[in-house]
Write a structure and sequence with these properties.
The structure holds two protein chains of two kinds. Chain A is of the alpha+beta class. Chain A has one helix at residues 55-68; strands spanning 5-12, 16-21, 24-29, 41-45, 48-53. A five-stranded antiparallel beta sheet of chain A has the order 3-2-1-4-5, covered by helices on one side. Chain B is an alpha/beta fold. The two termini of chain B are 32 Å apart. The chains are: A alpha+beta, B alpha/beta.
Chain lengths: 74, 367
């Protein structure tokens, strides 16, 4: 349940933004990560960015998540 | 996988396995390490890491799955809220099938009650915006990773004057059960694999109490085989040197300070309160309750008629959550209790220890 997924922030307003991963976009809350900049990777958990990470970290984290597999770890 | 990731490299895993074997042999005694994160439980079982460890290194799962540690009286209240005609209950999907004393949210939904599965507290807030005539209750279950997202949704509700958005707090904090497990002495823990994403919020410095007060080593690790094996190796080597430090091996995501904004928002809305854990009983100040000025958002204050409490018979989730027994030692495991017909919460959630064992380690123990 504490799974968090790196996504790229592609657009933002004051409290919300749009994050993208593999062409899938979703609206996320930015209240917990107000400093996140467009173009940066954010760690998304339960609809909110909870931290930022660089591209290399994001790629490493994604590789792990692909392995754990989305369908059996909710 | 698109590219070979260094975090899965078989050679690295073998080298770590060797390091662990060498260190454990020099230690010359049995040691037990506990992970306290449902995602670790799942990842360890899936990668088959237990098979790579020497006989004197045991890896057990602790109370790290929020769904599993949610006590039955919370589920009873959630079911009772769902039965009120003026209430819409919004929940993470994992809670749907957790048995309450006499029902489950899934059964209430099938009976026509308004129960909705959401991915985020923000989804529940949107439903509240769209249905002003209903009280929309979000089931706020989780650890420090999830709890700030609930506080953020509450903040948004305040800002937009969405007064019908309420939360039933089932919040759980990670520090009190770690202290309770060490103090309890039922299970001797020689080291902790600390949760990855909870630590994004709390920061590595948070765990100083392990070094300074409990004198038990800990490692913050990610979820790849190399991450987790490196964590076990670090714990073995700390024990060899007689050290009880906390090492952060997940620096690519976890900072020393954590997310201060998230913690401040959480503290604005909630204050520590005693709460019950399945299996561990009531632990002082291990949960979060609404601060008095926000009591109007507290769904725990709505009047409900509760079913008489009844724990499932024979279920040993409690002992599994404390690491006292392994799932196959429960008389119900793989007999009456399976992922299709779960009796206890540890089998319901995909991150539960019993579900992970059922899926990945069943054959090995011959159950």
């Amino acid at each position: 349940m504490c799974l968090a997924i790196p996504m790229r922030l592609v657009q933002r307003s004051e409290f919300t933004g749009t994050a993208e991963l593999d062409g899938v976009r979703r609206e996320i809350g930015l209240a917990l990560c107000p400093e996140a900049r467009v173009g940066e990777f954010v760690l998304v958990h339960a609809g909110f960015a909870i931290g930022t990470l660089d591209e290399e970290e994001a790629a490493a984290t994604l590789a792990v998540l692909e392995h754990i597999s989305m369908e059996d770890a909710s | 996988m698109k590219a070979r990731s260094p975090y899965f490299d078989a050679g690295t895993v073998r080298a770590l396995q060797q390091r662990i074997a060498t260190g454990a042999a020099r230690l010359g005694r049995d040691v037990t390490f506990m992970e306290v994160c449902g995602t670790h439980t799942h990842a360890i079982a899936r990668a088959g890491l237990r098979r790579l460890l020497p006989a004197n290194v045991r890896l057990i799962s602790g109370p790290g799955c929020p769904v599993c540690v949610t006590p039955i009286d919370y589920m009873d209240r959630a079911v009772a809220l769902a039965r009120r005609d003026d209430v819409t209950v919004c929940t993470f999907g994992d809670l749907m099938r957790v048995p309450s004393s006499a029902s489950s949210l899934e059964r209430e939904s099938a009976a026509g009650r308004d129960v909705r599965v959401v991915y985020s507290a923000r989804d529940a807030l949107r439903i509240a915006r769209e249905c002003p005539q209903k009280k929309v209750v979000f089931l706020g279950v989780g650890f420090e990773t999830t709890l700030p997202t609930i506080a953020a949704a509450l903040e948004e509700a305040e800002r937009e004057h969405i007064d019908n958005f309420l939360v039933l707090s089932g919040a759980k904090l990670i520090e009190p059960p770690l202290r309770a497990l060490v103090a309890d002495g039922d299970v001797h823990v020689d080291g902790f694999l600390l949760p990855g994403h909870v630590s994004v919020i709390l920061g590595a410095n948070f765990y100083r109490f392990l070094e300074d007060e409990l004198h038990v080593p800990g490692v913050i690790v990610g979820f790849a085989p190399v991450d987790m094996m490196a964590g076990v190796a670090a714990l073995v080597e700390m024990l060899e040197r007689g050290e009880a430090r906390v090492e952060n091996l997940y620096k690519r995501v976890v900072s020393a300070e954590g997310n201060r904004v998230a913690r401040a928002l959480l503290a604005r809305w909630f204050e520590p309160a005693d709460t019950r854990w399945r299996g561990l009983g009531s632990i002082p100040l291990s949960g979060l309750a609404f601060r008095a000025q926000f009591a109007r958002r507290d769904a725990g204050r709505l009047e409900v008629t509760l079913d008489p409490p009844r724990e499932p018979r024979g279920c040993r989730c409690g002992d599994v959550l404390k690491g006292k027994i392994e799932p196959h030692q429960c008389p119900l495991f793989d007999r009456t209790c399976t992922p299709e017909t779960p009796v206890g919460a540890c089998m319901v959630s995909s991150e539960g220890t019993c579900a992970a064992w059922y899926r990945h380690e069943r054959v090995e123990v011959g159950a």
